[in-house]
Give the backbone structure.
Amino acid sequence: MLVNEEIPHDFPMPHKDALYQAIDYKIDPDKADELLQYDGSIILERTKGEIAARCDKEDANFLAINLANDVATGRRSVEDARKFYADSMMAFMKQNKKNEYLEGFRFEVAKGDQGDRDKPFGPVGTTGREK
């Protein structure tokens, strides 16, 4: 989805985020902090079961989500993912060199409901407002 809003973003170099892309993805709440530290353009929707990236080009969104998956699965640290992202985008922008992280998903994308509906607060069937 191309959003009619340009969001200034300085990582790894100044640009404007406008292209939003989302996939079905089970979000582990214990990994949310790491994912958000890795890249501010990653969007987590735990209840809906989606992960998204908003950047200025599709290649960068593939890179962002692939590396988010690496962080979420423990394959990379936040620092390693940030360095790999920056190095990959610099090579792409300056020399038109693409690695496999920019060309598509490097993991099997889940199909269907990945949402986490959480649990009702209080006894089932109540709103917690009964007197």
Notes: The helical segments are 32-38, 58-72, 78-95. DSSP finds three helices and four strands in the chain. Residues 2-102 form a domain with the Ribosomal Protein S8; Chain: A, domain 1 fold (CATH 3.30.1370). Residues 78-95 form the longest helix (18 residues).
